[in-house]
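Take a careful look at the protein record below. Let me know whether the structure tokens fit the sequence:
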Amino acid sequence: MTDSNSSVKHIFICGSALQGQPDHGNLQGAKFLGPTCTQPRYRLHAAGNGWHPAIYEVETGGISIPGEVYEMTLAEYEYLLANEPPNMYPDDVVLENGDVATAMLYPKALIDQHQWPDISHYGGWAAYKADQPQASS
């Protein structure tokens, strides 16, 4: 969803930029609008050996992905885009209440090519990361 004057965008965050996750700073001063979920139209994979989430829309068998919505200025949005992993692209997602926000999606063909694991059953990126063994220092 974009403000009528197009000076702000509503962005759905569902991965490493969530509150409490390592890339949250990439949101800069974006205004937190609240937690939400998508409608059950998406699948969630762990791309790059668990480096970042990869979501895409499906016709059937989708889940509702939990996340957060932020209101971003165009400068904040451009900064976020510049700091996203390779191959991610912005597209609309439909939220549980029917609103539309922009999210970073990932090409399903690349997920299939790399055989990255489907982690949809974890119920979100933060839950997946919390269940992973911590790296030793």
